[in-house]
User: What shape does this take?
Amino acid sequence: MADNLEAQFAIETELLGLKLLPGQQESLLAAYAAMREMIALVGADHPMEAEPAHVFLPDAGKERRA
Amino acid sequence: MTASELCFLSVAEAAALIAKRQLSPVELTHAYLDRIERLNGALHSYVRVLDQTALAEARAAEAEIVAGRYRGPLHGVPIGLKDIYDTAGVPTEGGSRLCLGHTPAEDATTTRLLRDAGAIVLGKLTTWEFAIGGTAFDTPFPPARNPWNVERDPAGSSSGSGAAVAAGLCAAAMGSDTGGSIRWPAAWCGLAGLKPTYGRVSRAGIMPLSFSLDHAGPLTWTVEDAAIVLQAIAGPDPRDPASSGWPVPDYRAALAEPELKGMRLAVVRSMFERDSVASEEMRAAFDHSVEVLCGLGAVIGEVELPPLALYGAAAFMIARGEGFAIHEKTLRERPQDYGALARERLTIGAYVRASDMVQAMRRRRMLVDTTAAAMAGIDALLLPTVPDPAPKLGELAPYFGNERPPYMRPFNLTGQPALSVCNGFDSAGLPLSLQIVGRHFDEATVLRIGHAYERATTWRQRRPQL
Assistant: This one.
């Protein structure tokens, strides 16, 4: 991990092989910063049994199995 | 009846006249085409008008009806399709330079179902680029404008759909909703906009943005019209692996009961008084709506849901991760051909790591369960659709939804049916909105509440002056 957000963004951009257009870096960095906050909000410390929502089919499976 | 009066008939009203042979589908189609010719230059709601095929379809509908083969309430009724709905032999360009000239070989399932029901396709409607690009001025088509004030934003991404229905340029329109793109233009254009339950309506043949958040549904002048359109398009589809075999009820029959006696509704005050504070006028309109529903016999309570930002964060990562997966190849090969907003909103998805995505999906499961638990013993949730009425065109910030989030995205995440209805106008004459959220596959209840509300109020009598 880099020391700061800008450096981390630069590392990830390079690793992803993204060629940013002129002027794109600044706006994308702002979006990246906002997204890092959202990742923190979503969290990673979920109970082990917390299953992901897969392609979301509420109750429909019951109907199909019936 | 004048041409304007014809164009401001609801679907139900037009259908009643067509069924009795008191209104010709050809006459009605001509009226819409003339109005489009007169107003589309100011509103930019259509990107492609199919005048010749629409008239041919209208003549065919008329011949069938005269021969006694009336198909139902969409027969001979002119509609519009957001330009991400495939139309066989007609370009479907998604508002993007990347898709100019792209002509599908077959209809989207919903397009076909609407045609089977006898609807006449007037044309293709303006969309934000790939249903994500925001109100943009660097894409091939100019942004749609709000008929209540052409200097205002109609919202999106189904921007042309909202503008066209409000302006009387079609009787009903189809939109798509990944984070609110049906309900948002419905709210700012003063319409009924229904995001059905995830799986209720096929997305096959509709340009995808986020596989697990995309929904297809109608924008209409009245809730009854939304029920009519939903009836035609609901049901399973082998072409959409997420579509459901859950039984399809008679939605219009569910509207027959004019009152809401004993229905249990809950206000989600935490979202619009704590998480993202709605404007004073929006809150006043909301409180008045609750009084109206109470007067119809509903029992009103209150629930608290997890913070709006938590739903928004999980939905954002899922939407961006899935969106980047769809667009990665063209983003790498032709980034310059995207508008700046779509390019930025899609490229950020590259930075969503696999573990971030899985954590977002785990959080989604928890939020679905928490929301379902909060709805125990409750028939529907009530809250505004958005915090404010429409701003000036071009004033939406690139990440508007994160800075001052509207109240729609939680129900894309949970997959619940959600309906936006007009519940008044602000001091500048711009529409305000109420959102009604139901249990999975219980669109009938959501529509019943919305319809009862519309019948108890006078908001449907006001139309934009154009």
Observations:
- The first strand of chain B starts at residue 46 and ends at 49.
